[in-house]
Design goal:
Blueprint: E1 7-15, H1 19-30, E2 35-39, E3 54-57, H2 61-67, H3 73-92, E4 109-112, H4 115-128, E5 132-135, E6 137-144, E7 150-157, E8 163-173, H5 182-189, E9 197-198, H6 207-214, E10 226-227, E11 231-232, H7 245-248, E12 257-259, H8 273-281, E13 288-293, H9 294-302, H10 314-321, E14 325-328, H11 331-340, H12 345-359, E15 383-389, E16 391-392, E17 394-395, E18 406-408, E19 414-420, H13 437-460
Parallel strand pairs: 1-2, 1-8, 2-5, 8-19, 9-16
Antiparallel strand pairs: 3-4, 6-7, 7-8, 10-17, 11-15, 12-13, 13-15, 14-15, 18-19
Length: about 450
């Protein structure tokens, strides 16, 4: 019985068909490479298909570093410089891009874009230039020669399990991160991370991270931090259609009061909901309670936080899906209700009293955590409480890259033939969020252009 596997040869192999992979494949194709893009799922789009389509970034590097002080400045500088050209590139491809706005849930400026149209446009570019897109094909292992150069990959048909080899002059990893891997989440994010609500596609289980490190790629900083938003509890992923993840994300925590099971505040809520989300994992039971009054509810729960985010009451929607939500006429009734949910009522009464005193001018009060947004005090009825849990959309850490999209080994040297895009690459965000879609798109362009150049160089030597 033969152990021989079927094999093919292409210029550039892209593993992953989300925002970054399609961007990389289209860029490589436009630079003259024959591209094969494989996607593990039954359709392209990755986690970006569930997003609200915000192409945002900082307006300058100073703003970016102020927001993400622990990110890689070299990578972030190129990202900021490439933001507006990336938006122009979307328009060149015929993708609808709406006028920019200043987001309230992060920094910089954002351009709402039709990302589903972008997926189609990029796939058309790949195919127009003689390339191919295949779904239900997963990356298994990178092929590495005796000199340490990546020369292709062993792939696996998802349904049959059959393995086959693709020989390529350059390989781009764009599998979408490791948020679906309980093992990697526990290793890097810590205790309880394997129970995080996975707010993304189900296929991103660390394939790119695993293959890259096995082939000699180093890792970035930021592996213990991640992007996500607080989600209603006790809901599980199966109870919410994935396209509605942004609808039930509780962005308002940055403008509300957030307490743990002990009835104590544990963070400065105003830092942003994605940072609060990380802190909740480390609280007792990995649960927290958002408390707000009618003013905050009207301004931050009913009004959409940004275009395409949904124009409806997020707290009410959370209740309809089965989340624990309370609405009362008095603060005392609100405390009694969450007390029934397991929150320490004695401590909570003191927490709310101290918060109100501070918000109304008494700066001598003892606080469990800093307050920079005292407007969140519970002043006007009705009052609301919502039990929430942390989620993960993608990890901030990943494989180490440079501004050409090349994978770097632990010493900072390029791993020949290997490129990385999207959240398989780390270094941009670290504790704070530097962006999602625009990083995916831009790193796809960096890696696609470099991989095509590598393929052309090797072809000219034959």
């Amino acid at each position: 019985m033969s152990n021989h596997r079927e094999s093919e040869a292409v210029d550039v192999l892209v593993i992953g068909g989300g925002m970054s992979g399609l961007s990389a494949g289209a860029t490589a194709a436009e630079h003259g490479a024959k591209v094969l893009l494989v996607e593990k799922g039954d359709r392209t789009g990755g986690s970006a298909q569930y997003s609200a389509g915000m192409f945002f970034s900082a307006r300058n590097i100073e703003e970016m570093v102020n927001h993400v002080p622990e990110g890689d400045v070299e990578l972030l500088s190129k990202l900021v410089n490439d933001h507006l050209p990336a938006v122009a590139d979307l328009k060149r491809k015929g993708v609808r891009v709406d006028p920019p706005f200043i987001p309230t849930v992060t920094m910089g400026q954002a351009f709402p874009a039709d990302v589903k149209s972008l997926f189609i446009k990029n796939q058309e570019i790949i195919e127009k230039h003689g390339g191919e897109v295949r779904v239900l094909v997963a990356g298994q292992k990178l092929l590495v020669d005796a000199q340490g150069r990546v020369t292709g990959a062993t792939l696996r048909h998802v349904k049959s399990g059959k393995l086959f080899d693709i020989h390529a002059k350059a390989v781009i990893l764009a599998s979408g991160g490791f948020q679906g891997s309980p093992e990697l989440l526990t290793r890097f994010l810590g205790k309880g991370a394997d129970n995080l609500f996975v707010r993304s596609n189900e296929n991103s289980v660390g394939d790119g991270f695993r293959m890259g490190t096995e082939a000699g790629a180093g890792v970035s900083r930021g592996l213990s931090s991640w992007y996500g938003h607080l989600m209603p509890s006790p809901l599980r992923v199966s109870q919410i259609p994935r396209h509605k993840f942004p609808w039930v994300s509780q962005y308002e925590s940055a403008n509300a009061i957030l307490v743990n099971r002990m009835g104590l505040r544990f963070c400065n809520e105003a830092r942003m909901d994605d940072e609060n989300n990380q802190d909740v994992l480390r609280q007792p039971g990995s649960r927290a309670w958002i408390l707000l009054d009618s003013r905050i509810h009207k301004k931050y729960c009913v009004a959409p936080p940004f275009p395409n985010a949904g124009d409806f009451d997020r707290v009410q929607l959370a209740k309809e899906f089965g989340g624990r939500v309370a609405k009362t006429d008095t603060v005392e009734d609100l405390v009694r209700t969450v007390e029934e949910w397991g929150v320490n009522g004695f401590n909570l009464r003191q927490t709310l009293s101290d918060y109100t005193r501070f918000a109304t001018g008494d700066k001598a009060v003892r606080l469990d955590a800093p307050i920079t947004n005292p407007a969140a005090a519970l002043l006007e009825a009705p009052f609301y409480a919502l039990e929430v849990q942390p989620s993960i959309t993608f990890p901030y850490g990943g494989l180490k890259i440079n501004t050409s999209g090349e994978a770097l080994d632990p010493d900072g040297n390029p791993v020949k033939g290997l490129y990385v895009a999207g959240v398989d690459a780390g270094g941009f965000s670290n504790n704070s969020y530097a962006g999602g879609l625009v990083i995916a798109y831009c790193t796809g362009k960096w890696s696609g252009k470099s991989a095509a150049a590598m393929a052309s160089s090797l072809s000219s030597k034959l």
